[in-house]
Every structure is written in structure tokens, then in C-alpha cells.
Amino acid sequence: MFTAPENISEDTSLRGRLISNQRNHSLSDQFRIAQELARSVFYIHAHGFVHKTIRPETILLLSNRSAEFGSAFLVGFDSFGKADGNTVQSGDSLWEANLYRHPKRLGLAPQDRYIMQHDIYSLGVCLLEIGLWNTFVTYEGDSNIAVPSSTLNVETDRVEPVSLKDHLVSPANEVLPRHMGNKYARIVKTCLTCLDKDNTDFGDESEYQDNSEILVAVRSSFN
Q1: In which element (H, E) is residue 20 found?
Q2: What are the pLDDT digits (tens) for 101-158?
Q3: What superfamily does domain 10-81+90-208 belong to in CATH?
């Protein structure tokens, strides 16, 4: 059960805030939310765990008098587990969940066991949404069915996993720098391509191992 900190006046998910599309905040607020989210993921990995379900629905923005826009808190630990433990290689076919999963972790029978870099990929998708300040997922009607937003601009039943990843990398390259600057855009692209063989920013896998050889995939929290 999630216990909210004291003096909290309002809470909403990052998804709810993105869907509302309210822009009564500063660019500094977007950077701060991104930084707080990255640090949350870093702390989880530093203690040898993986989250597995990082998406705007599992990110709460809690507001108080000193931070009216809200501070980011990561919740949704129902699939939480040890990074060096055996991971059940099962999944689901929900496109709105698969949107935040690395191509090798999609569908009912993912190819790979879950590792920290899969969290990093999910983080990259969330950082892209924060940077663009547009939701990729909306909900229709009383049935609350998830549908792609005009920003995402895909037909979910026709997009191959690798193509969907490329579809996200494209705005990180072409659109995001105009919104958040080149450094932020480079970080997002690095997250989205963290398991690509030609990703030179992440370096060798051995650089992300602690003394127990647990993969530690976050090396920076926007320092």
C-alpha cells in the first residue's frame, strides 16, 4: 500500500496530467520531474532490484505548497523483483503496456529475462512524453479503453515491435531537441537504444556491474 508523504494537497498520475495537457508550469518543472523519475529508477537499481512496469500510470505527481506542480514518485511495485533472480518470461498483449517495453520483452512470451536495461528503456519512453508534454495513450468512453493519441500516431495492430521502437527514437532525434535541448534529447535516445550494439554512450555491460555482478544500468540522474 502506498503511503503519501505529509502535507500533500493533491495527487495525480503522470498520465492524468499529460492527458489534461495543462501547460501552467515552467520548463524547469518538466526537467525536475524527469530528474526525480530518473533518480527513483537509479535508487531501485542501486539496491539490486528491477521495477518492470515503469509507465505514466505508475508515476504519481504529489503536490504541496512548495511544489504546486508536484514531485514525482514511482509506484506500481506489483511485478517488482531482484535483478539477479529468476524472472518469469511471461507477458501480455496489451499494447498500452507493450509501448513501454523493450522489443525483446513484448507479448505473451518475451525473448529475454528481465534486466535493468529494460527498465531504462521504459524510462526513456516516459522521459520522451515528459519532454514533449503530450500523452501517447488516451482513454475512450465509459469503458476506459486505451487508444493511441494523435501524438503517438500509430495503428497498434499493425506496428512491429522494432518499428515501434524506431517510431519513438525518431521524435527523440527530430522533435525533442526543440522542446528540451540537445542534452535531454541525447539522454532519451540513449535510454531507448540502451541495448543496441552500436550504443557507445552506455559503454560495455561490465561498466554497469557492482561487486556482485548485478547489472546497474543507470549511470546518471541528469547531474
Answers
A1: helix 14-20
A2: 988 876 555 657 788 899 999 999 999 999 999 999 998 877 788 888 999 888 765 5
A3: Transferase(Phosphotransferase) domain 1 (1.10.510.10)
pLDDT at position 184 over 50: yes
Helix (H) or strand (E) holding 191: helix 182-192
Per-domain boundaries in the chain: 10-81+90-208
Closest CA to 41 of 155, 117, 129: 117
In 66-194, beta strands by DSSP E: 67-74, 81-82, 137-140, 145-148
* Paired strand residues for 215: 209
Angle at the Cα of 221 (from 51 to 35), degrees rounded to 5?
Answer: 85
pLDDT band at 216 (very low <50, low <70, confident <90, very high): very low
Cα Rg of the chain, angstroms: 17
Cell numbers representing residue 121 in the block: 528503456
Q: Taking the CA atoms of 35, 40, 44 and 47 in sequence, report the sign of the dihedral they define.
A: positive
**What is the C-alpha separation between 46 and 39, in angstroms, rounded?**
10
- In angstroms, the CA 212 to CA 183 distance is 32
User: Distance (Å, rounded) from C-alpha 203 to C-alpha 72?
Assistant: 28
Q: Are the C-beta atoms of residues 161 and 103 closer than 8 Å to each other?
A: yes
Do the beta carbons of residue 222 and residue 38 sit within 8 Å?
Answer: yes
* Residues 6 or more apart in contact with residue 21 via CB below 8 angstroms: 133, 134, 135
Q: Cβ(120)–Cβ(216) under 8 Å?
A: no
